[in-house]
Amino acid sequence: MEDQDAKAALREALETLRGDGPDMGAMQDAVPLLSAFLSKFAAPDFVCVMVPIPPTPGVAYPGVDGLRRAWDDWGGTFASVRAEFEEILESNAHLVMLVKQIAVTRHGGVELTQPSAMVWSFEAGRVARLEFHLDRGAALRAGELDAAGPELPRV
Fold first, then answer.
1. pLDDT of residue 11
2. Alpha-carbon gap, residue 39 to 23, rounded angstroms
């Protein structure tokens, strides 16, 4: 399997996930779909990383089950978390999905909105790493995309 094949499968899975519009729904509902994809395409040493806003360090969750554990930790703070699709950008070894997260706190029901990104990294035809970023600039750098550079490939 080549990187392009895994990316093509990922594009198709993300299109299914986002459905007919930008609202991708509750993230806890998306985790089983993403896990199913990863069970087919993840590298043996796959890691999921939650990358907060600097200077707080990211937290790595190894293995395909790391995706579920990461979202249990992150989502446990909120009554609900949903995502709205914005754009997909691509470099040779990465696919970056820009989203807007809308979360409602468990206490007080306060709605918070945060521009965010998912960075999928490919090695040897497999998904080696999935990072969830709260800082889009950091996500673009992790995806080897320079926001100030030439026109980015759009999907």
1. 82
2. 25
With 70 as the cut, is the pLDDT of residue 102 above it? yes
**Does residue 65 form part of some domain?**
yes
Contact 80, 103 (CB under 8 A): yes
Task: Look up residue 153 and give its two tokens.
Answer: 């490939």
> Is 29 part of any domain?
yes
**Counted domains in the chain:** 1
Q: Assess whether pLDDT exceeds 80 at residue 148.
A: no
CATH number of the domain residue 120 falls in: 3.10.450.50
Task: Tally the residues of the chain.
Answer: 155
Note whether residue 92 is domain-resident. Answer: yes
Mean pLDDT of 31-55: 92
Tokens matching residue 72: 């249990």
Mean pLDDT of 62-72: 94
